[in-house]
Amino acid sequence: MDDIINKCIDEWLTMNYAGHFSEAKNYYFETLFEKIIDRFVNNNSSKLPDTQVLFSILGFTPEPIILTQRALNPEVHVILYTDKNNLFQEDISPYLRKYLTSYYHLVELKNESFDTIYETLKEQMILYPSTQYALDITGGKKSTVASAAIFAKDFNFNILYVDYDEYIPKLRRPLPGSEQLNIVYSPYANLPELYASNLYD
Q1: Which helix (H) or strand (E) holds 173?
Q2: What is the pLDDT of residues 37-57, one digit of tens each?
Q3: What is the DSSP letter of 89?
Q4: φ, ψ for residue 109 (rounded to 5)?
Q5: For residue 91, which of 59, 56, 120 has the smallest C-alpha distance?
Q6: What is the dihedral of CA 63, 65, 68, 72, to 10 degrees?
Q7: CB-count exposure of residue 68 (10 Å: 0-12, 13-18, 19+)
Q8: What is this structure's pTM?
Q9: Mind listing the domains of the chain with CATH numbers?
Q10: Mean pLDDT across the chain, nearest whole number?
């Protein structure tokens, strides 16, 4: 498997370095990305296996949202997004439909204010009650992510980020296949003195 995926990565890099960016994008999503997903799931699916509801902040690329959802396999996936540049329907939505396997629910934010983000997340919690929530903060503007992270900490979410081991400065993106799921904050691990009693309920 590693030899196959490494060969595909080399082909993708060659296309990009030659300036064939459209061809490289098509190759990535048609040939390489499913292999990236398989590697990511194999390396990260055991990290939070009991996640029932996943919240994600969508940025300009769909890959992090897809990777996290496929690794955690939640019952429900709530995706918050804005569409100021009208990129969603053409550049993102088709890939969500193709690669997401859990039930997912799209929520377009009316604006990016703290109050809107906080209240929208609270509304979605009411719609999808659970004992195990996680929030993926990889995508979205820094201010949006900060607001969502404050909410997540207030309501005892695990907070996640799709990180990477290698970065390609020339292409301004991580090396495919080097992605990893980073647990930024876990209420039970990081504040056990507050949540230890819940472990025995």
Answers
A1: strand 173-174
A2: 999 999 999 999 899 999 999
A3: I
A4: -75, 135
A5: 59
A6: -140
A7: buried
A8: 0.89
A9: 47-200 (3.40.50.10770)
A10: 90
